[in-house]
Amino acid sequence: MIQAKSEQLFSRAQQSIPGGVNSPVRAFKSVGGTPLFMQRAEGAYMYDADGNRYIDYINSWGPMILGHAYAPVVKAIQDKVADSTSFGAPTELEIEMAELIKSMAPNVDLIRMVNSGTEACMSAIRLARGYTGRNKFIKFEGCYHGHADCFLVKAGSGVATFNIQQVPGVTAGVASDTLTCAYNDLDAVKALVAAHKDEIAAIIIEPVAGNMGCILPEPGFLEGLRTLCDAEGMLLIFDEVMTGFRLAPGGAQQRLHIDADLVTYGKVIGAGMPVGAFGGRKEIMQHIAPLGNVYQAGTLSGNPLAMIAGYTLLKELKEQPGLYAALDEKTAYLRQGLDTVLQQWGQPYVINSLGSMLSIHFSEQPVNDFASAAAANNGRFNKFFHAMLCRGVYLPPSAFETWFISNALSTADLDHTIKAVAESLAEIS
Ligand code: PMP
């Protein structure tokens, strides 16, 4: 496969952009090689600067649930853009967006728009602190809630991929208010809460983790967190930046039947435009300015192009009959095909999946937390990634990320992927 233009662009990019990229995992640093510079994408496929076509399992890290350049979304943006790209004043569209989200997501009376998942999570933590009058919060090792200082402690995604143990620039003071536990270890959470009685404002969690590969909550884990939060006056924050509107119209809350106090959303609700949001019950959300004194703001928040893109996508997700069943079926078909070829290969592996999230770990033991994800043979994953890329399949460039299945994938695409996995495994053994 010729990637000469990507190579040229990467060397040019490094002259003016740190590492040649605007977000670290894109650099292919841990898997090695040259990151592909993309030109366009449509449906299930992305095309790089050299014109190579790839079946896409990143889907902009989540939002392209219906595939790239989804026609109604593109048209809605085109129709809206001539009315101006930003007002800095309220619009009716923002109300429609908030009402649509409320009609889909459980436990959301009020919702505030922001510009990224990072902002959403950062603001939710500030609100939880303001509401409870407590400073500390618990997050889980390997979960990623964006790049705000307080979250860069034992974080997943790029922080895990690059094995950054301590992030320079995050002060010890800030980090000391972030308490961490292993995912799925309820006893450890209980012990931490007991050791910090009345000091913990919230527990924030990816209800299905996607930033250390795909890791599922074990039965009773999220329920246990819910009970603990109720008993100890802490808020349970679900970071649904990946899972929201993906696992079900009402996200992980609906799919797993657990109520959160606050919920954060991100990329999905902008259909690929820069958006995030946090919401919850009125009793908590009314502490946000201008109703309350917990300050949070944004010049571009509620941006009309981001709103119309997200609104159009969410409406399709809400109204397309059988969509979530179709996503589950595609994932099940892929998983079964992967299982068959991985079993034939005969080396240890684990597949985790729920809804349209899936990942493979080259591991002998179950992968249910960050330690087990990190203990897998991730060097093997890196070779696997490149073997797949050569066969036109674009996987996340790290074992510490989840694959996303879009509804644009055809059975032929899934079959091509399964065949590519069989060939890649043979190549890397
Ligand atoms: N939370 C989760 C679960 C995420 O996966 C991400 C990004 N991958 C974020 C928060 C941060 O979102 P953003 O990159 O839009 O700031």
UniProtKB/TrEMBL annotation:
Its cofactor is pyridoxal 5'-phosphate. GO terms for molecular function: glutamate-1-semialdehyde 2,1-aminomutase activity; pyridoxal phosphate binding; transaminase activity. PROSITE patterns: AA_TRANSFER_CLASS_3. GO terms for cellular component: cytoplasm. InterPro entries: 4pyrrol_synth_GluAld_NH2Trfase, Aminotrans_3, Aminotrans_3_PPA_site, PyrdxlP-dep_Trfase, PyrdxlP-dep_Trfase_major, PyrdxlP-dep_Trfase_small. Its EC number is 5.4.3.8. It catalyses: (S)-4-amino-5-oxopentanoate = 5-aminolevulinate. Keywords: Cytoplasm, Isomerase, Porphyrin biosynthesis, Pyridoxal phosphate. The modification N6-(pyridoxal phosphate)lysine is found at K267. It is found in: Cytoplasm. Pathway: Porphyrin-containing compound metabolism; protoporphyrin-IX biosynthesis; 5-aminolevulinate from L-glutamyl-tRNA(Glu): step 2/2. CDD domains: OAT_like (cd00610). Belongs to the class-III pyridoxal-phosphate-dependent aminotransferase family. HemL subfamily. Homodimer. This is Glutamate-1-semialdehyde 2,1-aminomutase.
